[in-house]
Amino acid sequence: MRGLHDTISRLSALRRPLGPEPDDSRLAPFRQFGSNPGRLNAWAYVPEGLPRGAPLVVVLHGCTQSARGYDHGSGWSAAADEHGFAVLFPEQQRANNPNLCFNWFQPQDARRGGGEALSIRQMVTAMQVRHGTDPARVFVTGLSAGGAMAAAMLATYPDVFAGGAVIAGLPFGTAHSVPEAFDRMRGHGVMTGEALAALVKSASKHAGPWPTLSVWHGTSDTTVDSSNATAIVDQWRALHGAADAPARSDRIEGYPHRVWNDAKGRVVIEEYVITGAGHGTPLSTLGADHGESAGPYMLETGISSTQHSLRFWGIAATRPKAARAPVVKARGEPARAKAAAPAPARRHASRRSPVTGIQKTIEDALRAAGLLRR
Against a cut of 0.90, is the pTM above it? Predict the structure, then answer.
């Protein structure tokens, strides 16, 4: 385990001011979604005229990022227009984490029925009530700390999410403190096989079927070691009962791509190895009009993790892929740790006036689902 000096040094390296917010953001604030025990903010984008029963994608930004900044780079709201789905962006606050990391390593925030995980669950229910999205087609994705939190949402609410995509993230349940988080990010003490699957099984009473999963990681990532991608695959492969060896290995857009099937032959896990890429979200901004934009931790790699995740989930149609890939160097800002000090104590909810209208409808739905106490 890393010493205190190492932990403090890595935290100091992460503390940087947030970049300017895009002035052309398509996202709108999403408020009044429940008791919000994790004290998160939320943003959403719903394409004009989106019919009821459309899919919902939950997107979790990385450390030092914001919802609007991450959408500007990853192009999720533009993809929502292109493919017809709603998108929800939970957003961290500095009062919870000074580096704007989701607290995936804090047990109180990465568990079913409490903290940030419950806040995100409440947002999903509110989106379903307010916009009529399909409860059977809810997906979650995220980068880095957001990727680790996406893994936590899949583990703690496997009955809510049909699938996910973890980008440069970590497996669920392997860290319970800041020093442990840094150790796992460096590839130290990562568990294997059935022990990893047991962490997910103990997170809820759910016994399957389990969400499908797309895993993305760069081979030159010095912030989150790529051994974590292997651990994520192992964690969910054991849950799905998939064989150790992949059912198929090929190359997509020139990058190594592996697929695992369950006992019924259904594709349940895929992994993309982004050769030469550093820590960030793989994008395809050249010669494509997906609304994606390169920047810090948003990497031009010639492959769009946004579009390919949508294809894996069945939201976007499969298209022919070229067998080319640029030589990618590690990009973005200097490597730095992304976990942060424990969040301060939560404030007690203030006394509220009686609610009416759509807010009452949302709260009634949350109570019916056991997500909100009176």
Answer: no
